[in-house]
Amino acid sequence: MHPYIREQLSQRAAWSQPKPRKAPFTLEMFQALSRYLRSQPDGLDSFLTKQYAVYDWMRLVSSQVLGFQNTLKLALRPKRGIIQSLKRRMRVLGQGKLLLSSAPASLSLHRTTNPFLFRLYTGIT
Amino acid sequence: LKGRVTSVHLHFRFDKSPRNFSIRKFCSTNDPILDPLAAAVSCIHRADLLGIPAWEPIAAFGTLSTYSFLRDLHITTVMQKTSIWAYPNPKHEMRLQIKCIVPHSNRITAAVALKLGGASDEEIAFRLHWLVGSVPTYLRECFSQVGTVIQQALTGAYHTSL
């Protein structure tokens, strides 16, 4: 078969219905959702709602656009108590799954007490 | 926890980049909304309150007696409802394309915001864990639709990250 015809057939075979376009979730929408949550009565019931969970999920996922610090190999030992309690709940961000799943040592929370190490670690003065 | 937790390490379990399982450190941005540290702590705290077992996903909601994990349908519903709150005018550009707001819209937002802020395709791919070749595809999906109002809103998101 002529290469041109073969390419044409190949392209036709690979064609599929274009997927619908996606609109961005704008900052104004974030603000609107934040306003809605703030208008709800304070308390556990509000915090456990679907709206609040979606809000947290979205801003966590959107954090990729935010500046981040590359991890240095300088590990600061987490404090016991509440930090350790949180560390037991370390999670992995599962982007394709729309869920956050867990794995030890994947999400670590650090608390620094030494200002010099803190600056070295985070670059924040 | 406010003031005690200074950073959070996110382990990206799976993505479309050649650097799967990378770990990146995020510090607080002190932004009232777009603060990854506050969001992570909030997710973990909610999981604790719901009594979710340690090895289960933590993106969940419910009551103290029962809970459900977040699914794309839940997220889409809330996002589209939020669009109505943000843009009450039914003829607004964003209201007309409300069906185009899906969970992936977050990533579109990130890509467009970075692009509007002057980021290169390589930087966008690095930040969003994509292949460089995928960036133009994502931008093409929505970049041409971004009007002035949306551009301002997205640029605001980018500036917040600086």
Offer a concise description of the structure:
The complex is a heterodimer of chains A (125) and B (162). Helix content of chain A is 44%, strand content 8%.
Averaging pLDDT over every residue of chain B, what do you get? 78
Detail the poorly predicted runs of chain A.
67-125
> In terms of per-residue confidence, which ranges of chain B show pLDDT below 50 for 5 or more consecutive residues?
157-162
Strand order of the largest sheet of chain A: 1-2
Structural class of chain A: mainly alpha
Q: What is the overall pLDDT average of chain A?
A: 60
**SSE order of chain A:** HHHHHEEEH
Most extensive chain-chain interface: A-B, 74 and 95 residues
| Major beta sheet, strand line-up of chain B | 1-2
Total helical segments of chain B: 7
Helix content percent band of chain B: 40-55%
Distance between the termini of chain B: 24 Å
Distance between the termini of chain A: 68 Å
Roughly what fraction of the amino acids of chain B lie in strands?
5-15%
Coarse morphology of chain B? globular
Main sheet: strands, sense, barrel of chain A: 2 strands, antiparallel
In total, how many beta strands of chain B?
4
- The count of strands of chain A amounts to 3
